[in-house]
Amino acid sequence: MRDPSSPSSLRAATLLLGFGLIAWGCEAPPSDSGDAGASGAEAGDPAEGADSAGAAQEAAQDSAQEAAPDPEAAIIRLDPNDPNLEVWRDRDISDDPPREPGPIRVGSVLTFFGLPVARTIEDLVAGEVEVAFMGAPVDMGVGFRGAGEGPTAFRAMRRSVGSMETMVRWRSELTAVDYGNAPIDNLSVERSMPPIRRMVREIAETGAIPVIIGGDHSIEFANVAGLADVYGKENVGVIHFDAHYDAGGSRSGHLISHAQPVRRLVDDGHILGRNFIQVGLRGSWPGPDGFEWMRENEFRYHTMAEIDRDGWTTVMQRVLDEANDGPEYLHISFDIDVMDPAYTSGTGTPVPGGLTPREVFPIVRGLCSENNVVGFDLVELNPLVDPGYTTALNAKQVVDECMTGIALRKLGLGSRDYLSPLTRRDARR
Ligand SMILES: [Mn+2]
Q: At a CB cut-off of 8 Å and minimum separation 6, what does 262 contact?
């Protein structure tokens, strides 16, 4: 064996290191590979005397710092002197008239399902609110505008609620309010996460169920992190309905977008991978790396390929059984693109071959009736590309089915199979 301190060994070691970094860069997202390649090239210079990975990286960093700044790489910073810099952090209720706390009826003003409005935590508590809807109009996580108009489109839908299937009108069974929109920074996904998370936490701390209408799927991070803050990191399960697995790596340096909330939640320790169930995955993303990552983290997932092979009824029972086998509390994150674009073309990243309304409505109603649902989000409704309001109509129905399920559970009728005797052929007299 050669002396490890000899120059040739050093060169071999540093070249290997460089090769290793480049090879790692190939597996990493494209944005990372450039940096890794540059470090590898610099670490390959034996004159730097690198005898370990740490020393090589330090040398690379030193030379990077000494290099003249690249004017094209300059980051334009936020203006710390702008008096409105932090205005996005809090909802402004300073103009509200003095009043007794409690939900406020607002007549024909558009609210989610025509519900009364609540403005403060005190309103939620005084009204003994069980479900608080809120809007999270983030759309820069998609990369183009439109999903941010989701809450507005949702509030504009017809107000009828309830289902003939169960003969339950959830509006009569549950105390629900429109809690308004989260005060996001509509120029920044990153800065929009804290106010959404805080609002979700606020609602959950009163014991109410936050129902968050997006907005793009980046908000799943804030929603689940907010619930984990209240219920505990190991106690919350998530069912992620989506064509995409949304656990992507760095995107041009960004660590949160509509393609990354699941990765952030797991990698940052807000939720355990084994408490995550994915339903409806299809199309070109992820490749093997993404599926390997899910397996390493003990995810459960159900692709459209599984549904095509085994049939929806079978897979639906599997998902319902897995949810019952999960932790005490459940959040459902419903990306409208899990449904086929025939029903939901009004979304940012449609993928053909998705679920039908006939498949989606019973599973959502079943999940919400059999489980202790503590949160629900409906995301990626983009009314700007929704001809005929088809997507908004289906999105509203998905949420309506969950509300019916929650009402069934409260009435002691919580079962995936529950149907009113009046609508069942086998119960006919
Ligand atoms: Mn998604």
A: 220, 240, 245, 246, 247, 276
